[in-house]
Amino acid sequence: MSTQKRPLSTSEQRIMQLLIQGQTNKAIAMALNLTTGSVETSLHRIYVKLGVENRVRAALVYLQLANAGQPLPAHENGSRI
Predict the structure, then answer these.
(1) Position with higher pLDDT, 69 vs 61
(2) For residue 33, is it left (φ>0), alpha (ψ between -120 and 50) or beta?
(3) Rounded CA gap, 75 and 81, in Å?
(4) Tens digit of pLDDT for each residue in 8-52?
(5) How far is CA 9 from CA 22, 45, 66, 77, in A?
(6) CA 30/CA 32 separation, integer angstroms
(7) 30 with 18: CB under 8 angstroms?
């Protein structure tokens, strides 16, 4: 997988917030009114963007980027996740 890290979309960030809370794909889908397949597809895109191969590494990299002050897109209402 690529080691280049690209910004996540707002919807991908919402998924990551639930993922780092320990939610399952099914729980993420229910919370965001998505299908489990949509969550799985989004997670695959997230893994590629972050250059990781699983949800644990994705969570670690996501949190490292957030803690390092890397730019993460704002929500539509202007607030950060």
Answers:
(1) 61
(2) left
(3) 7
(4) 999 999 999 999 999 999 999 999 999 999 999 999 999 999 999
(5) 20, 10, 14, 14
(6) 6
(7) no
**CA–CA dist 50, 52 (Å, integer):** 6
With 0-12 / 13-18 / 19 or more C-beta atoms within 10 angstroms meaning exposed / middle / buried, residue 29 is buried
How far CA 53 is from CA of 4, 49, 66, in Å, comes to 13, 10, 19
Rounded Cα gap, residues 76 and 51, in angstroms = 26
Residue 76 pLDDT exceeds 70: no
